[in-house]
Design goal:
Number of strands: 9
Order of helices and strands: HHEEEEEEEEE
Distance between the termini: 50 Å
Oligomer: single chain
Structural class: alpha+beta
């Protein structure tokens, strides 16, 4: 019975992240406090700066999630998303800080295009002994497919999935040939 509860408790937050990544309306899934207006990402040309358009609202960065790549509303080539060297992954990435997180990387989950990819993440940290920050990437070897993509990264307590999620950042971008 306890194993069944643990499995259920781990699936519910994953479904929330997946639902967020699948939503066509980023503002609905990520409330104004999470997805507030800002400046568009590098290379982006949304309909209005920070005001929605074809890529939804720009994400609010800060807290434990400092940057995301490709940036919100960016248009990047497919070649730029291919991982050639595992020590330098490309794809969907985020620079994060572990400030206030006792277990570091265990607190981060990611979904891309409605699929949780947490088990496939690559972490880059300067030190394996009490790292302060790092970069996390979902880096498929073949790169991302051409088209629009949505991604979401969340920060939540891996030991208490009933606890409110600390932070969610969702964004959209486009991969071109």
């Amino acid at each position: 019975m306890r194993l069944r509860y643990c499995l259920l408790a781990s699936v519910v937050p994953a479904l929330l992240v997946l639902a967020a990544a699948c939503s066509d309306d980023v503002k609905t899934v990520f409330p104004t406090s999470i997805a507030s207006p800002g400046t568009p990402g590098v290379g982006g040309s949304p309909a209005t700066a920070g005001g929605g358009g074809e890529f939804g609202e720009s994400p609010k960065l800060g807290g434990n999630i400092l940057t995301v790549a490709p940036a919100w509303a960016a248009r990047v080539t497919q070649a730029s998303t291919r991982t050639i060297d595992a020590r330098s992954p490309r794809g969907v990435c985020a620079s994060v800080t572990f400030d206030g997180l006792p277990e570091n990387a265990q607190w981060f989950r990611m979904a891309v295009d409605g699929q949780e990819v947490t088990a496939k993440l690559t972490w880059l940290v300067k030190s394996t002994t009490d790292p302060k920050d790092g970069t996390v990437c979902y880096a498929p070897e073949q790169g991302l497919t051409v088209g629009k993509h949505q991604a979401a990264i969340s920060v939540q307590n891996p030991r208490n999935l009933q606890e409110p999620t600390k932070q969610i950042v969702g964004w959209a971008f486009e991969v071109t040939p």
